[in-house]
Design brief:
By secondary structure, the chain is α/β, with parallel strands linked by helices. A 9-stranded mixed β-sheet has the order 4-3-5-2-6-1-7-8-9, with helices on both faces. β10 (about 865) and β11 (about 870) form a beta hairpin. It has 35 helices and 11 strands. It comes from Aspergillus flavus.
Length: about 900
């Protein structure tokens, strides 16, 4: 027999059994998964494949255009679905295959036109690696997945002030007008009274750009700054993250990318003099532990160990002895270093993974000693991070499109002096400060007071920027229900209700186990019967037998391995048995062998036994399904209760944290003001009073989960779902993105108004100039002289008024300096003279009395009083 015919017969079998399966189970709420009919076909006896071979030939001899492979399957699908649609469910259960005559009748009824229309209405992919039966039966599962997916698109600018967008629209129109005006003046030498309009137009165009709003992220190592930034810019790993150590070794700016590529980076290296100064400090640290360095007995994370690792990172080919025997001048002459210093590297990329790896190679912190790498080639590549001043990352993040710039700072206690200066510089330039802290610290510690150190408070007070502070509590998905319940006294669902569900689940599980055991016994008995029936079949149905295929009822027995799979998929379907032989008096001859009669009687007896067992199997299976549904329902109720409890705890802790931070922040400002009032005159104290309740209410506090947001956005696929979060808004990352945009509104409004004002002045000047140059508006000499006299008189009045205002302002400043600064000098000097000797004595005291180690003392002196957590300048 032709192999192609057998392959087409297999397609007939798969299409028919799939249609039968759908007809039997079509009225169920959820269609069970189809058995693997392709695999079952391989175990069917060749004799029972013959009906499908006949159907292949019948379809081939008809006028139906079968066309391509995919079209042939579609035609079979239509034919068999129509045949089984005309049957009742019970008839479909008893029918294993439709007779050939019925199949031919279906071909004639549908006809070529209907089959073609049916094919055109189908939209089925031809996937050579997928089975048709499984594709059809898995459609419901795909629909379920679609319904449970989380919407991935939203507009962070949805709630911004509409006035801003109106102003920006007007600015765009103004820019178009300016560009047209510039084109009109292009190539012309039109001047009047030494007025050149082209530079003024260019100057007006230059102020159309909105100033960047720098947002500085302040927080300790491990606070989750990098993860938070990745979530805000809607990327998975743009900024390197690491749960084992600090990942950010350099200041990192994130800006919106106006270019064509998705990502762009600028790597700015420190200057030559900065690296020379850094090397001298590192060499002095090595000299302090010279003997330990030679022996290789450095303590992990010691100053000398960090210095050695930093030098080896930049000069990987140098051994320890080479470093100790060289000089700073010699190291500065290395071309691989000197070529980098003072330069800027730029690269662009569209692949986020490739871009992330490239950026990570620059900003990943590896200044501490860890496991030594194996192999002679390991660690031979130069590391860039000790030489980098700042990294700028440009990306198309909606949260940054309005001009916000997120700055991830490595901290003020960096060992690199140049980066410390960068951090200080950013702190001065920042328009807004975000204080990042894990939420467990925000609850357990007074984080608002701890992070508002005296130096930070003073800067905020001098800059009048208390209103530019935002607190962000991270890692809200890290929670222990019992701890939150006890500390916040939450009223959660009673334990009795949870225990009752647990008992019900255990009971259903035990019943299900018994039913499974019962089903196993029945299936074992059915298997034994199948073996006996198979022996009878081999005797009754062979080449010497007078029985033929047309005498079989359309029920076929499967082997036990396939039977178990069908039982799982079709609970109400009768377990297929051996073809039943209907033998009538006309079908047998009076001289028939008595042995065949005996075999037939035994066959009918076994069939009856099998039918009883099959009924038991159905009843057991139905009960199993009922128990499974009940168990699933109870489990879902328990899961929902746990999820609701977790969500309630997260929300309660979030609200508590927000309230505590707001209150502590207002109290911290009150404490600072009270310290200032001690040096003020009584008449001036009332002027300093603030509305602390308003400060408390207006402080922005966010409780965010970057991990939950990324998971809901379809990222972090290797991690499990984050419990307690089902919507993006619950992570508060979308709120932070909107807050990021809102922080730019004031700068955008000011920039737009500044540009429009300048544009108006320019247009008015050009308008007056154009009128003056017209023939109808040429002034006489007397009119010009009169106008000049009036102008000069007005200028004299303006100068006199300006001088008076300046003197008045200077007097006001002198009074303010006298009141707020000069009057405090004497008390401050007296206070300092009393406190400073004790502070310095504390530094010089023995270690047992709290003094500094000699190496720490030296390192602090080399770094101008700032080393790690020490800040002598602040203490003084």
């Amino acid at each position: 027999m032709d192999d192609q015919v057998i392959q087409l017969a297999e397609q007939h079998y798969i299409a028919e059994q799939t249609a039968r399966h759908i007809r039997i189970w079509g009225n169920q709420d959820q269609l069970p998964l189809c058995p693997n009919f392709k695999e079952i076909w391989s175990s069917i006896a060749p004799t029972l494949r013959q009906p499908y071979v006949e159907r292949v030939r019948a379809l081939a001899s008809s006028a139906t255009p079968t066309g391509a492979q995919a079209q042939y399957r579609d035609i079979l699908k239509t034919l068999y679905e129509k045949s089984y649609a005309e049957m009742t469910q019970s008839v479909a259960e008893e029918t294993w295959f439709v007779p050939l005559s019925q199949f031919e009748q279906s071909i004639g009824q549908l006809g070529t036109r209907v089959l073609s229309e049916s094919y055109q209405s189908l939209d089925i992919q031809d996937d050579e690696n997928s089975d048709d039966d499984r594709t059809v039966c898995s459609q419901d599962e795909d629909m379920d997945m679609a319904h449970t997916s989380v919407p991935m698109e939203y507009d962070p600018r949805k709630y911004e002030d509409p006035k801003i967008s109106t102003l920006e629209t007007v600015v765009k129109e103004g820019l178009l007008a300016l560009n047209k005006l510039q084109q009109a003046f292009e190539g012309s030498d039109v001047r009047n009274a030494d007025i050149d309009w082209k530079p003024q137009i260019e100057r007006t165009l230059s102020i159309s750009q909105t100033e960047k709003v720098i947002i500085g992220l302040n927080g300790s190592t491990g606070a989750g700054k990098s993860s938070l930034i990745n979530a805000i810019v809607d990327g998975e790993n743009i900024v390197a993250t690491n749960c084992m150590r600090a990942s950010t070794a350099v200041a990192t700016e994130l800006l919106y990318n106006d270019g064509e590529s998705r990502y762009k980076a600028q790597i700015e290296f420190i200057e030559l003099r900065d690296w020379e100064q850094e090397l001298r400090i590192l060499f002095e640290d090595l000299l302090d532990s010279h003997e330990d360095v030679i022996r290789g007995d450095l303590q992990k994370n010691s100053d000398a160990a960090v210095a050695l690792d930093k030098i080896k990172a930049v000069y990987p080919l140098l051994e320890v002895k080479d470093i100790l025997n060289t000089s700073v001048e010699a190291l500065m002459e290395h071309s691989n270093v000197s070529d980098l210093l003072g330069s800027v590297h730029v690269f662009e990329q569209n692949d986020p993974k490739v871009f992330s790896r490239m950026v990570k190679s620059y900003i990943d912190s590896r200044g501490r000693r860890g496991r030594s790498e194996k192999g002679p080639e390991k660690g031979r590549d130069m590391k860039y991070w000790p030489l980098i001043r700042v990294v700028r990352i440009f990306l198309k993040a909606p949260a940054l499109i309005t001009g916000a710039v997120l700055v991830d700072l490595p901290g003020l206690h960096d060992t690199n002096a140049a980066r410390v200066e960068v951090a200080k510089e950013y702190s001065k330039r920042c328009s807004a400060h975000w204080i990042i802290t894990p939420i467990n610290r925000a609850v357990d510690d007074k984080v608002a007071r701890d992070l508002l150190r005296q130096s930070f408070k003073m800067q905020m007070q001098m800059d009048c920027s208390f209103n530019n502070i935002t607190f962000v509590c991270t890692k809200t998905d890290h929670i222990t229900v019992s701890e939150v319940q006890d500390s916040l006294k939450l009223r959660l669902p009673p334990m009795q209700e949870r225990e009752q569900r647990d008992r019900k689940r255990a009971q259903l599980g035990a019943e299900l186990k018994l039913l499974q055991e019962g089903k196993g016994r029945v299936m074992e008995e059915l298997s034994l019967l199948d073996d006996e029936i198979e022996e009878l079949e081999s005797c009754l149905f062979n080449e010497e037998s007078s029985l033929n295929l047309s005498q079989l009822t359309p029920i076929k027995r499967k082997r036990h391995s396939d039977l178990e799979m069908d039982v799982t998929a079709n609970p109400n379907a009768e377990v297929p048995s051996t073809p039943i032989l209907h033998v009538s008096a006309t079908d047998t001859q009076p001289s028939a062998d008595s042995e065949i009669d005996e075999l037939l009687r035994k066959f009918r007896s076994l069939k009856s036994e099998r039918k009883v067992l099959d009924t038991q199997r159905r009843e057991i299976y139905q009960q199993i399904q009922i128990n499974k549904a009940a168990l699933k329902r109870v489990q879902a109720e328990s899961d929902n209760m746990r999820a609701d409890t977790l969500r309630e705890c997260i929300e309660a802790r979030n609200e508590y944290s927000k309230h505590e931070i707001k209150r502590d922040y207002a109290n911290g400002i009150r404490d600072l003001d009270e310290e200032d009032q001690d040096t003020l005159a009584p008449s001036d104290r009332s002027k300093l009073a603030r509305n602390y309740k308003k400060i408390e209410d207006e402080l922005p506090v966010f409780t965010a989960s970057a991990r939950a947001y990324q998971k809901l956005r379809g990222r972090l696929r290797k991690e499990s779902a984050v419990a307690g979060f089902t919507q993006l808004e619950q992570t508060e990352i979308p709120q932070l993105q909107r807050h990021c945009i809102s922080l730019t509104e004031r700068a955008r409004e000011a920039s737009a108004m500044r540009f429009l004002t300048q544009l108006k002045q320019l247009f008015q000047s050009i308008s007056l100039w154009s009128l003056e140059t017209g023939q109808a508006h040429i002034m006489s000499a007397e009119e010009i002289q009169e106008l000049e006299a009036e102008f000069n008189s007005t200028m004299v009045e303006l100068k006199e008024t300006m001088v008076a205002e300046v003197e008045k302002h200077i007097d006001s400043l002198r009074h303010e300096f006298e009141k707020t600064i000069i009057r405090r000098f004497d008390p401050a000097v007296k206070h300092a003279s009393e406190k400073i000797p004790g502070i310095i004595s504390g530094w010089n005291a023995p270690r047992s009395e709290g003094g500094l180690h000699i190496q720490t003392y030296r390192a602090t002196c080399r770094r101008r009083g700032m080393f790690r957590e020490l800040d002598w300048n602040q203490q003084l």
